[in-house]
Amino acid sequence: MNDQKRKVLLEEIEKIRHSKVIVYFSYTPLDDGILVPLYQELNKIGKTQKIDLFLHSYGGAVDTPYKVVMLIREFCEEFSVIVPFSAKSAASMIVLGADEVVMGPISELGPIDPLVKHPLYKDFWIPVQALRCCFEYIEELIENNSNTEVSEIIVNSVLNKLDPWLIGDYEKALKASRQYAESLLSKYMLKNDKEKVKAVTQNLTNGYFSHGYPIGRAEAKEMGICVTEATGELWELIWELYLVYQSMFSGENACNFSLSTIG
């Protein structure tokens, strides 16, 4: 039942959007594991004028979004992202490589501070900005604490747990996220308004304290992102398709991610 309904909804969205739709729906971190199945789906479609990526993801690896955008653009002239609910962090980076992002009243983008795997805890991902916040906290502690011995004990206990190689790697991830954001915006979304590129990049990489901050369509548009508001029948179809995929992912046997077209 769900599969048949999914196909009907995809067909209706494609008719309205005059596009080919690829769905990436996941609750696990985005990484290079998407690339081979994505290439296979794109090969099925072949070269086409317009591709819409129906995207639900909470983010992941810093390098993967750029690869996803470059791969999709090998197969189309126009590329858009449809966000039914959440496209956060690395998923928001994919949006920057599109010509537009289609958003509804509940759709959210997010800051693009990258996620990295915790060095000790398996399958635990942390935002790199958390390390920056740790250092800022230590600086504030030293400045505001008159008892230097207590400050020294606290600072040393924290620093002794930090691997300088990891710190350097995390700093590289932050710089890479800014570099990718500027590159994608300059080449695609803001290619005709390059004066906004640095401001949008700065906002998305350093403008928010919460990794999960919800950037809705109005705020995204104010920031300078090219937003198309989904309304009426189009939004109803997008939301219904989201609910179909959400139901597919409920239960113990849900897969890690779904990457699919109508076929």
Spatial sequence of strands, sheet with the most strands:
9-5-3-2-1-10
Name the CATH superfamily classification.
2-enoyl-CoA Hydratase, Chain A, domain 1
The overall pLDDT average reads: 86
* Largest β-sheet summary: 6 strands, mixed
Cα Rg? 20 Å
Give start-end ranges of low-pLDDT stretches: none
Number of helices: 10
CATH arch. level architecture? Alpha-Beta Complex
Question: What's the structural domain tally?
Answer: 1
GO cellular component, one term: membrane
Protein name: Peptidase
Pfam family, one: SDH_protease
InterPro entries: ClpP/crotonase-like_dom_sf, Pept_S49_ser-pept_pro
Give a verbal description of the structure.
- It is a single chain.
- With 263 residues, the protein is α/β, with parallel strands linked by helices.
- The chain has a single domain (2-116, 167-260), classed as 2-enoyl-CoA Hydratase, Chain A, domain 1.
- The protein has 10 helices and 10 strands.
- The chain has helices at residues 2-17, 35-45, 64-73, 90-96, 129-144, 148-159, 164-189, 197-206, 217-223, 232-248; strands at 20-26, 48-56, 76-83, 86-87, 100-103, 108-109, 115-117, 125-127, 227-229, 257-260.
- The strands form 3 sheets. The protein has a 6-stranded mixed beta sheet, sandwiched between helices.
- β2 (48-56), α3 (64-73) and β3 (76-83) form a beta-alpha-beta unit.
- The radius of gyration is 20 Å and the shape is elongated.
- The relative contact order is 0.18.
- The model has no long low-confidence stretch (mean pLDDT 86).
- InterPro entries: ClpP/crotonase-like_dom_sf, Pept_S49_ser-pept_pro.
- This is Peptidase.
